């Protein structure tokens, strides 16, 4: 009877191990996780723009400034240009995942700036700016003006 109990225990243990191993082998891999970029205005600490200047040359006041966008996300901002037969240049964003794949999505259009000193593409409708009223205690008020130039030239710069 003792040999029988040992044999049953061995069979049951082997069966449990087999079931466990089979379950481990047949598990479906985890779904890929998208590695999105996370863009933000990059400027001096406490500021969102630099090279600020009020231009009064055209008979009105224009606030001119420089700004830069940086990425602190898990994935890169990768835009690819596709020139259509009618000359429209479509921007497609590639979003990578943690399994080495990627997905693609329509992101907008590129505009070629071929005037003097440019000769590169701008990504249209990339940003918008609102000049807001400053309220008591430096609170942020309603917009009093909005931007009309909302395109950016895109360049990759690596800063370790």
Largest sheet: 5 strands, antiparallel
Rg to the nearest angstrom? 29 Å
Please state the average pLDDT score.
78
Give the count of helical stretches: 1
Report the principal-axis shape.
elongated
Instruction: Output the strand order for the largest sheet.
Output: 5-6-7-8-11
Q: Which range best describes the helical content: under 10%, 10-25%, 25-40%, 40-55%, 55-70% or over 70%? A: 10-25%
Total DSSP E strands: 11
How would you classify the helix and strand content by structural class?
alpha+beta
Oligomer: single chain
Number of domains: 2
| Helix/strand order | HEEEEEEEEEEE
Question: End-to-end span in angstroms?
Answer: 72 Å
Please state roughly what percent of the residues sit in beta strands, choosing from under 5%, 5-15%, 15-25%, 25-35%, 35-45% or over 45%.
35-45%
Low-confidence stretches: none
Explain this structure to me?
- The structure is a single chain.
- The protein is an alpha+beta fold.
- It folds into 2 domains: 1-30; 31-38 and 75-153, no CATH class.
- The protein is 15% helix and 39% strand.
- The chain has 1 helix and 11 strands.
- It has one helix at residues 2-25; strands at residues 39-42, 50-55, 62-66, 68-71, 78-83, 89-96, 102-113, 120-123, 130-134, 140-146, 152-153.
- Strands 5-6-7-8-11 form a 5-stranded antiparallel sheet, with no helix packed on it. Strands 1-4 form a two-stranded antiparallel sheet. It has a two-stranded antiparallel ribbon with strand order 2-3.
- The protein is elongated, with a radius of gyration of 29 Å.
- It starts with a helix and ends in a 7-residue tail after the last strand.
- The relative contact order is 0.11.
